[in-house]
Design goal:
4-stranded parallel beta sheet; 37% helix; 17 helices; disordered N terminus; single chain; 488 residues; Urease, subunit C, domain 1; 8-stranded mixed beta sheet
Length: 488
């Protein structure tokens, strides 16, 4: 594999790597080769439109408006986008569908948005558990990365992560790691949507020699792939403690010029805050504010240790937070004030973090964990109700990434990024409130179907992708390579 993926015609390669999905006619209502299409896709002599896909579901949960549940509704899809959401009987009268999928005991929800992960660290799942964040990074992860992280590591690890996320109903992930070109290639090979972090650290790695090199490589990738239908981009300085004021100042200018969000770890641990006070005389968020980094594009990852003034600062500047409850708990870093953030109006999405620190890329777990923790921390059982947790896992994440015009809810005009959850199992019966069930009873094992831009990627709980046959070998290969590290 070439050391730098940027030397190829990346955009052409990525488009070629994602062939159109083969037709899967669950119910073929009109033969595709014979379907007469008028200029407005209307069948001649009728008031019936021809569409690509019609999904009938027991419940359609659009997320917007919040808390709404549409019983016995259908979602009509054409050219990868949602054309209409309407009662099942009306849909059958209005459309001829080349493919129809019937989900009689399912909830159809927007595809989940993982607002923070390091996808290729799936290859380090269970590699260095039960350590503090500082020990984990300095003693285990950074040394192992220096020895093993490469373009092949990132591509293989991201393939594995995408398979796990898709099977769990995640259709879009916000990535922060080295070799983002390889993460892009893997995501496209899996048919998944990715927001690629253009990572920057003020330290040399195998990926880049210095901050200027990180920036140059990231910008070249963004310029080459900016029009790809599955990809978007963020500036991704790793954290205040790994990036200098000089580098931050440059990144602020670039983010404003290119209109990119800024995705970074902030206030993850008390140790980080103590170091900032010792080195800079202020807490990290105040330092970022003085530099001009706190604004509507900021996605503050973790944001555990916040004062009321710092929460007010996020509110005033329209910043977002990526809440990662399982990772926060595993490192014993504390409890983020999520109920207060939401009450004050901060946009809060959900992230898993990486497999090496979670160890699951599972947003159903994160929804439940977030809701329960918010109640315990605030002392209010009404805090973070189920519909709000579902919004955090979908529309709020899309909003933070500036993708809410395209994904995050089931609305006409948006991409058909959809997840079906099967309620026809004993552990999901009876059902009085399907949204409550999604957060408190369902798990990723209940995900039956997943579409990205109308393309079926998971069908009856099975990956519908030629890459699936490689996944087991990938895990074994890298386990053997890293196995000596676990005995260090």
């Amino acid at each position: 594999m070439p050391e730098c993926f940027l030397t190829t015609k990346t955009a052409e390669f990525l488009d070629a790597a994602m062939p159109p999905a083969p037709p899967r006619f669950t119910v073929l209502l009109y033969p595709a080769s014979e379907t007469p299409r008028g200029s407005a896709n209307e069948l001649p002599g009728t008031n019936v439109e021809s569409i690509d896909l019609l999904i009938d579901a027991r419940w359609v949960i659009p997320v917007q408006p919040s808390g709404s549940v549409l019983e016995h509704h259908s979602v009509a899809v054409r050219d990868g986008r949602i054309l209409a959401v309407l009662p099942k009987a009306e849909a059958h009268a209005a459309y001829f569908a080349l493919e129809r999928v019937t989900l009689p005991e399912h909830a159809l929800i927007p595809g989940l948005v993982n607002l923070h992960t390091h996808a290729s660290m799936a290859l380090m799942r269970g590699f260095a558990d039960d350590l503090t964040l500082t020990q984990w990074l300095q003693d285990r992860i950074w040394p192992a990365e220096a020895r093993h992280v490469s373009p092949q590591f990132v591509y293989d690890g991201t393939l594995l992560a995408c398979a796990e996320m898709l099977r769990g109903g995640i259709t879009c992930f916000n990535e922060m790691y080295f070799y983002p070109a390889e993460a892009a290639r893997a995501a496209v090979d899996m048919g998944m949507r990715a927001a690629l972090g253009l990572v920057v650290i003020d330290a040399p790695t195998a990926y880049a020699a210095d901050a200027d090199d990180y920036v140059a490589k990231g910008l070249a990738l963004r310029d080459e792939l900016r029009e790809h239908r599955l990809l978007s981009f963020c500036m991704a300085p790793h954290a205040p403690y790994t990036v200098s004021d000089k580098t931050f100042s440059r990144l602020i200018t670039l983010a404003e010029e290119l209109d990119l969000p800024v995705h970074m770890h902030v206030h993850e641990s008390e140790d980080e805050i103590r170091q900032s006070i010792a080195q800079h005389g202020v807490r990290p968020l105040e330092r970022l504010h003085r530099l001009g980094m706190v604004g509507p594009g900021l996605i503050a990852v973790h944001a555990i240790h916040l004062t009321q003034d710092e929460i007010a600062l996020l509110v005033q500047n329209g910043s977002s937070v990526a809440h990662c409850p399982s990772s926060n708990l595993k490192f014993a870093n504390g409890f983020a004030p999520v109920a207060r953030l939401l009450l004050d109006g901060v946009n809060v999405g959900l992230g898993t973090d990486g497999s090496a620190s979670n160890n699951r890329l599972d947003l159903f777990q994160e929804m439940r964990q977030a809701a329960l923790l918010a109640k315990a921390v605030s002392g209010d059982a009404r805090a973070l109700p189920a519909h709000q947790a579902l919004t955090m896992a979908t529309l709020a994440g899309a909003r933070a990434l500036r993708l809410d015009h395209a994904i995050g809810s089931i609305e006409p005009g948006k991409f058909a990024d959809l997840t079906a959850v099967d309620f026809n199992v004993p552990e999901m019966s009876p059902c009085y409130d399907p949204i409550s069930h999604l957060v408190y009873a369902a798990g990723r094992e209940n995900v039956s179907h997943v579409w990205v831009a109308g393309r079926l990627l998971v069908e009856n709980r099975q990956l519908n992708n030629k890459q699936k046959n490689r996944l087991e070998n990938i895990g074994i290969l890298w386990q053997n390579r890293l196995s000596m590290e676990t005995r260090a």
